[in-house]
Amino acid sequence: MTPAARVQTAIELLEPILDGAPAERVLTSWARRSRFAGSKDRAAIRDLVFDALRLRNSAAQAGSGGTARAIMLGMIRLNGEDVQALFDGSPYGPAPLSDGELPDTEVKACIDLPDWVATELAKDLGDSFAEVEALLKQRAPVILRVNLRKATLPQAKAALAKEGIETKAHPASGTALEVTEGARKIRNSVVYKDGLVELQDAASQAAIDLLPLPEGARVLDYCAGGGGKLLAMAGRFPGTYFAHDAIQSRLRDLPERARRAGVDVTVLQSDVVQSAGPFDLVFCDVPCSGSGTWRRDPDAKWKLTPEALEETCALQAEILSKATDYVTDQGHLVYATCSLLARENEQQIDRFMQDHPNWDLCYQHHWTPLDGCDGFFTACLRRSN
Ligand SMILES: C[S@@+](CC[C@H](N)C(=O)[O-])C[C@H]1O[C@@H](n2cnc3c(N)ncnc32)[C@H](O)[C@@H]1O
Description:
- By secondary structure, the protein is of the alpha/beta class.
- It has 3 domains: 3-110, no CATH class; 143-199, Alpha-Beta Plaits (2-Layer Sandwich), CATH 3.30.70.1170; 203-383, 3-Layer(aba) Sandwich (Rossmann fold), CATH 3.40.50.150.
- The protein contains 17 helices and 11 strands.
- It has helices at residues 3-18, 23-33, 39-54, 56-62, 68-78, 83-86, 115-125, 129-136, 153-162, 190-193, 202-209, 228-236, 254-261, 273-276, 298-303, 306-323, 346-355, and strands at residues 143-146, 166-169, 176-181, 197-199, 217-221, 239-243, 265-267, 279-285, 327-337, 359-367, 376-383.
- Strands 7-6-5-8-9-11-10 form a 7-stranded mixed β-sheet, sandwiched between helices.
- α12 links the parallel β5 (217-221) and β6 (239-243).
- α1 packs across α5 (68-78), α4 crosses α5 and α11 (202-209) packs across α12 (228-236).
- The longest helix has 18 residues, at 306-323.
- It is globular and about 75 Å long.
- GO terms for molecular function: RNA binding; RNA methyltransferase activity.
């Protein structure tokens, strides 16, 4: 596909996304029915759509309108590319610019968040809001977690380099490698297929590093989903691992990922969690707004509603309270979100402490993109003596 044809396709895909369709679904379904598009075309179109979503308000300002075409035009203008060369009327490309479509207004940065989220985040992040918001406009780094069961960090780094994947150590965690070159080769690399590395943000890894996990502990990942945190725990601390999720289908990929990582996991249905317990550590990586990962999933920031956030917060409190039933007397309950919002983080823990006076807070910590990571929060709780 020509660069112009990629831009026109991105505009056509952005239209339904702006109308409410999930970006991932729109892109996947287009890729399935567009066999003519090669992997480079698909990657380029995905980047155009996601870049436009990351910068949606700024791009709309630069393109003088909120339509998919205006946003794409504005985004290309913001990137300093030659808009006229891409909107040139060539076959499959966007129609040429009409009078007034390329405004002579100055391009100015806008806040690329829904207003209500910006207000709340500004309050929560205080002085660092502007810098964090600016980072949310950018693509996230690609980070790998080295599976210490299979390799040390230098061994994994060297093996990756042999396959054309260059990395550097990430300061947030001793298991994290930031990919500096060859990110698109990861999923097909032998190093990845053999389970030496997994894709995982550095903040998640740093949160796992903090866990009080004595050797041989019985650990329940109560909201295990695809098992990312469970595999990180198991890679770091030998123990007996159990996985649970309210939606069993979310655990679908876990057995294969665990096999690749060389980890044994017992999957528990909801009705047997109590009888399989108690556990020395119960990890609750609860459903959340995902605001800490909006660089990776910028569609989500425009689709979050105050009502949905309210419901999510109620569910988080319910899960945390329920999980207390499964912890041994001396054990730990760990709460985690990939959110930047205090309402889902510190405030959630404050409320838990008020409602559960027999629990103490051992530590809490949050990361933001200023740490070179996704936004992430974790708190560790223990029954009072
Ligand atoms: C943030 S995701 C977990 C991601 C996973 N820990 C990982 O690292 O890949 C949250 C998970 O919580 C699950 N969940 C939702 N409600 C739940 C509940 N009441 N009890 C347990 N799990 C729940 C969701 O199905 C979802 O898979």
